[in-house]
C-alpha cells in the first residue's frame, strides 16, 4: 500500500521519452482526419491490435507509420501537450524529450515546423503543468552519416531551443562509430550528447557510445550486464542509464518484466533511471513503468528514492532546478 503511493507521488525526471512515441491511437486518427492523411488501419482498435511487437524493428515500422499524420506546427504542439498532461499526472517535473526530425523532413515537413511546435509546447508545459521541459534532437541511425549532417545543418538556426543530440532507431548493424564525426561537431557546438546503446546491441556498442561519441548518458544500456569490465566502468563513472522496463518487455528484450535486470544493475551501483520510451505503444507512462516494475521485480522504497535521485542527477537541468528535487 505505501510503496505504490510513494511511487505515484514522488517527483520524477523523465530522460528517455520519444515524443512521437507518445502519440496515442486516438490522436493519430484525429490528426489523420484533420490533415486528410490515409492510414493503413480502419479504426483505433485495429491499430491498437497491431501493437504486438517481437523486437525493436517490428515496433519501429509501426511507430514511423503513426508519425505520418504529423504535418503542421499545431500537430507537433498538440502531441507534446498531450504528453505533458499525462506526465504531470505522474508527477514528472522535468522532461528531456527526444524528437526524430528526419521522420518528418523526409515527408517534406520543414525543421522549423517541427521545432516551433515542440518548443511552444515546452514553454507552455512550464506555465500549464509546472514541468521543466527541453528538447533533444535524435539522429536516425539506420540513415547515413550524410543525412545526419544535413539534419544538423537544418537545425543550426534553432540550436538555442535544443539542449542536446541523441541517436536512435535500428541499433543492430548501425554502431555508434558510423556517427563519430557528426557527434564531434555537435559537441563543438556545445550540445549535450546521449545515445541509445545496448538495447538489443552488444556491450561493444556501449563502449563505442562512451569512447567514440562521448555520450554523457546511455539510453537503455541493459546489455551491459554481459560485460563485467563495462559494468565496473559505468558504476565508477556514474554514467546514467535511462532504462525503460515496459519497452524492454514489449520488445522482447526480456521475456517477462520479472526477468528484467534492473535490480542487478542497481545492485552493481549503476546510475539507473526509469523512463517510458514510447508510452503510447508500450502500455504505460512513468507511473505504470514504476508500479509494474516494482511489483514484478520486488524493488523496495530505497530503490525508489535512488531511482528518482539518479534521474535528477543525470538530467541536464541547471543546478538550481536539480537541487530542488535531490
Ligand atoms: N530504440 C531505438 N529507437 C527508438 C526507440 C527505442 O527504444 N523508440 C523510438 N525510437
Ligand atoms: Zn528510446
Write a concise synopsis of the structure shown:
The chain has 326 residues and is of the alpha/beta class. It is built from 17 helices and eight strands. It has helices at 2-9, 25-35, 44-49, 56-66, 73-89, 101-105, 111-129, 145-155, 180-188, 203-211, 228-236, 245-250, 262-267, 279-282, 286-297, 301-314, 319-323, and strands at 12-18, 92-99, 132-140, 164-168, 192-197, 217-220, 240-243, 271-274.
Description:
Residues 11-326 form the Adenosine deaminase domain. The chain has 326 residues and is α/β, with parallel strands linked by helices. It has a single domain, classed as TIM Barrel (Alpha-Beta Barrel). It has helices spanning 2-9, 25-35, 44-49, 56-66, 73-89, 101-105, 111-129, 145-155, 180-188, 203-211, 228-236, 245-250, 262-267, 279-282, 286-297, 301-314, 319-323, and strands at residues 12-18, 92-99, 132-140, 164-168, 192-197, 217-220, 240-243, 271-274. Strands 1-2-3-4-5-6-7-8 form an 8-stranded parallel beta sheet. Helix 11 links the parallel strand 6 (217-220) and strand 7 (240-243). Zinc ion is lined by residues 16, 18, 168, 196, 219, 277.
Explain the layout of strands and helices.
Blueprint: H1 2-9, E1 12-18, H2 25-35, H3 44-49, H4 56-66, H5 73-89, E2 92-99, H6 101-105, H7 111-129, E3 132-140, H8 145-155, E4 164-168, H9 180-188, E5 192-197, H10 203-211, E6 217-220, H11 228-236, E7 240-243, H12 245-250, H13 262-267, E8 271-274, H14 279-282, H15 286-297, H16 301-314, H17 319-323
Parallel strand pairs: 1-2, 2-3, 3-4, 4-5, 5-6, 6-7, 7-8
Helix pairs in contact: 5-7
The structure holds hypoxanthine (HPA) and zinc ion (ZN).
Amino acid at each position: 500500500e505505501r510503496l505504490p503511493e510513494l511511487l505515484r507521488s514522488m517527483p520524477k525526471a523523465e530522460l528517455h521519452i520519444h515524443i512521437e512515441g507518445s502519440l496515442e491511437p486516438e490522436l493519430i486518427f484525429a490528426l489523420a482526419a484533420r490533415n486528410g492523411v490515409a492510414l493503413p488501419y480502419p479504426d483505433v482498435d485495429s491499430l491498437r491490435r497491431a501493437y504486438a511487437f517481437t523486437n525493436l524493428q517490428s515496433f519501429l515500422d509501426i511507430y514511423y507509420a503513426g508519425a505520418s499524420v504529423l504535418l503542421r506546427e499545431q500537430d507537433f504542439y498538440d502531441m507534446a501537450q498531450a504528453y505533458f498532461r499525462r506526465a504531470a499526472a505522474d508527477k514528472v517535473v522535468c522532461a528531456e524529450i527526444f524528437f526524430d526530425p528526419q521522420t518528418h523532413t523526409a515527408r517534406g515537413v520543414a525543421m522549423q515546423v517541427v521545432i516551433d511546435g515542440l518548443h511552444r509546447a515546452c514553454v507552455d508545459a512550464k506555465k500549464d503543468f509546472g514541468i521543466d521541459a527541453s528538447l533533444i534532437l535524435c539522429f536516425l541511425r539506420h540513415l547515413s552519416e550524410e543525412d545526419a549532417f544535413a539534419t544538423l545543418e537544418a537545425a543550426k538556426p534553432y540550436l538555442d531551443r535544443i539542449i542536446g543530440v541523441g541517436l536512435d532507431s535500428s541499433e543492430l548493424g548501425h554502431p555508434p562509430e558510423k556517427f563519430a564525426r557528426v557527434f564531434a561537431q555537435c559537441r563543438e557546438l556545445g550540445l549535450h550528447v546521449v545515445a541509445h546503446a545496448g538495447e538489443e546491441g552488444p556491450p561493444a556498442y556501449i563502449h563505442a557510445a562512451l569512447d567514440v561519441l562521448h555520450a554523457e548518458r546511455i539510453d537503455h544500456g541493459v546489455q551491459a550486464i554481459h560485460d563485467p569490465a563495462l559494468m565496473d566502468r559505468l558504476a565508477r563513472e556514474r554514467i546514467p542509464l535511462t532504462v525503460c522496463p515496459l519497452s524492454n518487455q514489449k520488445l522482447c528484450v526480456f521475456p517477462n518484466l520479472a526477468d528484467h535486470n534492473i535490480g542487478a544493475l542497481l545492485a552493481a551501483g549503476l546510475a539507473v533511471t526509469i523512463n517510458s520510451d514510447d508510452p503510447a505503444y508500450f502500455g504505460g507512462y512513468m507511473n505504470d513503468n514504476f508500479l509494474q516494475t516494482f511489483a514484478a521485480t520486488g524493488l523496495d522504497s530505497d530503490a525508489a528514492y535512488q531511482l528518482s535521485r539518479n534521474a535528477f542527477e543525470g538530467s541536464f537541468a541547471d543546478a538550481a532546478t536539480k537541487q530542488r528535487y535531490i
